[in-house]
Amino acid sequence: MGRTVPTWRGRVEQEIEVLVPYRRALSTNDRCHFDAMLHDVRMRRAAGGMLPAHEAWKPMLLSMILGAHERIQALEQQHTLLQQKIQSLGEGDEQ
Questions:
Q1: For position 8, what pLDDT does the model report?
Q2: Which contacts of 87-90 are long-range, i.e. CB under 8 A and separated by 24 or more positions?
Q3: Where does residue 56 rank: exposed (0-12), middle (13-18), buried (19+ CB within 10 A)?
Q4: 45: CB partners within 8 A, 6+ apart
Q5: Of 22, 43, 48, 72, which has the most beta carbons under 10 Å away?
Q6: What is the pLDDT of residue 50?
Q7: How far apart are CA 68 and CA 75, in angstroms?
Q8: Helix axes 57-94 and 28-43, enclosed angle (nearest 10)
C-alpha cells in the first residue's frame, strides 16, 4: 500500500525548494546564515517528523530556533571560559 501523506523529509525539501529564489536574492553573508538555518532543520528531521503537522513550517522553525539556541549557549560557555582565564591571569599579577 502506498503512502497518503508525503514523508517529513519530502515536505521539508519541498519547502526548501520554494525558498531557492529568496536564497538567491540574499547577500553572500546572509546566504551563509540562511544555509546554516536550513542545516539545523535537516539535522533535526527525526524530531520534526514526530509532529503530525500538516504544515512543515512549525517544526522547521522550531529546529532553526533550537539550532540558534545551541550556538548561543556555545558562545556563552566560551565567554565564561575566557572570563575565567582573564581573572586567573589577573590574580597571577597581584602576587
A1: 82
A2: none
A3: buried
A4: 8, 9, 12
A5: 48
A6: 85
A7: 11
A8: 110
Best CA proximity match to 41, nearest among 73, 72, 19, 74: 19
Pairwise CA distance, residues 95 & 63, whole Å: 49
Cα–Cα distance measured from residue 62 to residue 67, given in angstroms and rounded to the nearest whole number: 9
d(Cα 59, Cα 41) in Å, to the nearest integer?
8
Using CA atoms, how far apart are residues 11 and 38, in angstroms rounded to an integer? 13
**Grid coordinates representing 19?**
525558498
Q: 11 is written with which cell numbers? A: 515536505
Contact 63, 43 (CB under 8 A): yes
Give the Cα separation of 84 and 91 in Å (integer). 10
For the chain, report the end-to-end CA distance as a whole number of angstroms.
77
Higher pLDDT: 62 or 49? It is 62
